[in-house]
Amino acid sequence: MSKIQLNNSQLKYIAAFFMFIDHFAFILLEYGTLPYFIGRGIGRLSAPIFFWSISEGALHTKNMRRYFRNIFIFGLVIQLVYTIGVGDIGSLTSVIELNKNIFITLALGLIGIIFIKQYPGKSLLHFSIIGFLCFIGELINADYGWYGILFIILFYLFKENRIKLVTSLILINFARFVLYIDGYELIPNLLQLLALLALPIIFLYNGKRGNGNKYFFYLFYPIHLGLLYLLKEILIQ
Question: Rounded distance, CA 217 to CA 110, Å?
Fold first, then answer.
């Protein structure tokens, strides 16, 4: 067993650090430069940790519906703030542009987990619901789309079997690479494979919740994005 162990809060702080580097590169660095791709590569480790964390929360929450409601409502609030601050409130495209809002993806993944928990043993129903959620994720252009939704659900389904978990996540990462190989630039597509490097970090989890503020990520996500976009506006003036 590894001597290094991390609780849930520590893992989320690590994910937040990776996320900040990712968004710093995306918002402030010049596309195509080495620092840009390094920052974006490091950032690929962030989302899988948060996807794992949301599935872990689904395992331990006493009220799944309230857990989902909090995630979903916060996602709607973030979307409204983003639309007013960055997009165009009069544009339907801007209002439904969800590719910068990971909370909608988390909510869709939670819906899948809710159905799996409520209807155990019904594989056909599970596949149908998961397929439908992935379709919705792509239709509304949710952040990470089908890929993120599957990550969340697979973390839940294979929580007790690391071999199946790792195998399934490797498969969907390479499936994503192949699917986007024609319509996506090679380097960004390759960088997404680095998401798999988050697994060894996640496997350091010691089963403990930790003492971190449970609202830290809820606040960190919109605040750090807002500050980075504000800094960008200041720098280009």
Answer: 17
7: region left, alpha or beta (phi > 0 left; psi from -120 to 50 alpha): beta
What is the Cα gyration radius of the chain?
Answer: 18
Distance CA 156, CA 60 (A): 11
Instruction: For residue 197, give the 3-state DSSP assignment.
Output: helix
SS (H, E, C) 88-135: CCCCHHHHCCCCCCHHHHHHHHHHHHHHHHHCCCCHHHHHHHHHHHHH
C-alpha–C-alpha distance, residues 50 and 143, integer Å:
13
Tens-place pLDDT, residues 7-37: 999 999 999 999 999 999 999 999 999 999 9
pLDDT tens column, 108-139: 999 999 999 999 888 899 999 999 999 999 99
Q: How many Å apart are CA 214 and CA 216, to the nearest integer?
A: 6
Q: pTM surpassing 0.70?
A: yes
DSSP 204-217: TB-S---SS-TTHH
In this structure, what token pair is assigned to residue 62?
């006493």
- Domain ranges in the chain are 8-236
**Which residue, among 85, 131, 76, 65, has the nearest Cα to 104 in the 3D structure?**
76
Question: Within 13 Å of residue 137, how many CA atoms lie on the same side as its CB?
Answer: 28
